[in-house]
Design a protein that fits this description.
The protein has helices at about 5-10, 15-30, 35-40, 40-50, 65-75, 115-125, 230-245, 275-280, 285-290, 300-310, and strands spanning about 55-60, 80-85, 95-100, 105, 110, 140, 160-165, 170-175, 195, 205-210, 210-215, 250-260, 260-270. Strand 3 and strand 4 form a beta hairpin. A 7-stranded antiparallel β-sheet has the order 11-10-9-8-7-12-13. A 6-stranded antiparallel β-sheet has the order 1-6-2-3-4-5, with helices on both faces. The protein is α+β, with helices and mostly antiparallel strands and about 325 residues long.
């Protein structure tokens, strides 16, 4: 493995963790607003209040005795997603894509019994998957049916798009594709593929897995540098509107494209990771500093998105 010197990283405009924490998260994200994004249930309810599209909430399980009451509801469902409200890193997310007799079928094809589901709920409430291991609640929501555009590009899971939004401007984006290694989850640390996206067009720039450049999906063999995200501007607008909704200046917005419902917000992150720079092959810092220098920020999401699409093209900043 080749290591780059600090000088080379600075020259490339790479945003490091210390700079991110002090100059952007610490400066632009007031701590009193963190609970709105650290808690997925609060984020979902806030999104519904602001008219930001998000997968429909089916049920919330808060206490152990409620698990028995949710049994009937689960047995009536063919497909659903279950997740801890305060989970991190994709831990504890359970995606059920179908039924086989009395069994629930995961995206990987593995069968789960009702008892398995109840055990998963118990672990979720106990805080097994949550930040700092604190007691949690479980969210059950509609399953995303991903758009046909992504057919063959994601394996055993729904692809999502991470867009970094700074002061309301979308500054960098990547597509995250599930793999067998990531157990159907779009989490780069678990082995998902990251595909850098051009802010101006929504076209793919390059792809990586475990920070190593690749050209094809490791499971499907599909070429990853021929992609074009449909309705790209609408997706950027959804991400930009999350700025007013969350009151946070530096956020990661995770968005999915549903076949029938279009762009849907999955969750927000007040401390988005830095691997998006690897997927794009360029640093975030020049774009962030550029936005900081705007004397009169654009007031509407439409104006901010138009400015970002013009300024942050693959051949530009």
């Amino acid at each position: 493995m080749r290591w780059a010197s600090p000088f080379k990283l600075h020259e490339a405009g790479i945003l490091g963790m210390n700079c991110r924490n002090v100059d952007f998260i610490g400066r632009y994200n007031l701590r009193r607003f963190y609970p709105l994004v650290d808690d997925k249930l609060k984020t979902k309810l806030l999104a519904e209040e602001y008219g930001v599209a998000t997968p429909a909430l089916i049920s919330v399980v808060r206490t152990q005795h409620e698990i028995s009451h949710v049994e009937e509801r689960l047995m009536q469902l063919e497909k659903f997603a279950m997740k801890p409200s305060r989970g991190s890193g994709g831990k504890g997310i359970l995606v059920i894509t179908g039924r086989r007799d009395e069994f629930f079928v995961k995206s990987s094809g593995v069968e789960m019994s009702l008892e398995d589901i109840k055990r998963h709920l118990t672990n979720t409430l106990a805080g097994l998957y949550s930040l700092r291991g604190n007691p949690d609640v479980a969210i059950i929501e509609d399953l995303i049916e991903f758009d046909d555009t992504f057919e063959g590009y994601s394996y055993e899971g729904v692809p999502d798009i991470r867009i970094i939004v700074f002061r309301g401007y979308p500054v960098m984006a990547m597509l995250r594709l599930a793999t067998h290694k990531s157990d159907g989850k779009a989490n780069l640390h678990q082995g998902a593929v990251g595909v850098g996206l051009d802010i101006a067009t929504g076209r793919s720039l390059k792809a990586v897995q475990f920070a190593i450049p690749i050209e094809q999906h490791p499971d499907t063999g599909k070429r990853l540098i021929d992609m074009h995200i449909p309705d790209w501007k609408e997706m950027l607008l959804l991400a930009s509107r999350c700025y007013e909704m969350s009151n946070l200046g530096y956020i990661g917005t995770d968005i999915v494209l549903d076949k029938s419902r279009g762009a849907q917000l999955l969750e927000l992150n007040a401390r988005p990771g830095l691997s998006i720079q690897v997927a794009n092959g360029r640093g975030l810092l020049p774009r962030l500093r550029h936005i900081e220098k705007i004397r009169k920020p654009h007031r509407t999401a439409e104006a901010r998105v138009a400015y970002a699409m013009e300024t942050f093209s693959a051949d530009g900043l």
